[in-house]
Amino acid sequence: MTETPAAPAAPPASHTPVGQILMIVAGSLIVLVAGTVVLAGAALAWAHATQRDGDGYFSTSSERLDTATPVITSDELDLGVSPGDTRWFDAGDLATVRLDVEGVGESPAFVGVGPAGDVATYLDGVAQARIEDVEVHPFRVEYQFRDGADRADPPGDQDFWVAQGTDGEPLVWDLESGDWVVVVMNADGSAGVSVDAAVAAKVDWLLPLGLGLLIGGFVGVVGGALLLVFGAVGLSRHSATLPPVPVSGEESTSGYPVRVTGHLDEGLSRGLWLVKWLLLIPHLIVLAVLWIGVWVVSVIAWFAIVFTGRYPRSLFDYTVGVLRWTWRVGFYSYAALGTDRYPPFSLDPQPDDRATVEVDYPEHLSRGLVWVKSWLLAIPHLIIVGILVSGGATAASDSAEAAGAPSLLGVLIVIAGIGLLFTGRYARGLFDLIVGLNRWVFRVLAYVLLLRDEYPPFRLDQGETEPAG
Known about the structure:
Distance between the termini: 72 Å
Oligomer: single chain
Number of strands: 14
Radius of gyration: 35 Å
């Protein structure tokens, strides 16, 4: 009796790594918020260290206040409940205010702060100019005028002022809870007030707040970064454990020494691409540092090629590794959307790479071409790359309208994403076009970064070698 062979075991069902995705999303948000807090704390600490005068005050410049009335008043300053009422803090804890006034007329100036009710009684029936609005640049004051007598009793004779000052003696006032009005007058109560005035404030809690924000923000950045790292590593491990996806229609290798491939995964998530920008943050941080290294390495390699005709092998492998990492991340995200497998944190090729960049190491490079190929000879390709990744108009125009033009690659990615969202399918022809455009970009990058002397072909497939220069 012939036994029926057992059916092959079905591959384990993959599941969405929700936990790792949530860790990356939460870590990204924490880093963004905490980074903002760090910047705010640094700004406060900088202001405390550099923007105060010798007495510890933050001060405005002196500006002219001028009116024909006997009195200039502020709007009512509502600092909370009446003095003496119990509350969890007093307005005096916030700041100490200093008002400097200097009369420019014959009579010395007077400035005082008093309870709103007492000031209203004192100035009842007196013409007034109430400050309604102040513009700083350029300085301009809008007044609301009230008719009345053209003279008031001398302000210095009143006993309700909580703080007062005159020419050469600034008003210094610890803020208090209550309703207050600031009054500027001539010391004799006469009409025609003209003074140069400056406002200053001493805020004792500014430095502790700044240091607290710095420390708290730094702790938040570290905590968010740890979440990012653990989430990214977990997501990368999850991708590594997925069963290999059979690849059909492999691109044939060709004679051109820069090969860029991408293999479309089946069963792509309909909506994951909408949040991949958050999941990419760990990679983008690392790549920003790695690309700084690429430009440094390219300068070193330029001198090495000029003097020896060779690109140092270790530096060559580093640059190719960064290109490979960049393409993996782009293929996962918004350069292709070709896979949902989280990219590994590695410069080296991986057995299950869905996107690869390979550059053959040159035994010799032209000492003459190195002077011109990165900028002069590459100009035609750089124009095309500008059209592909920066917008067609941008490559040919400096206008504001051109700067906002969409890139061809960006438009195609949006179309692919919308197709995934509504149909769950990625059109093969669209995918091949997107990969071909990226291939063109990376071939030009390899040429500009001095990795090869062969001029990049003007084509989207792997292409054949064309004569150098």
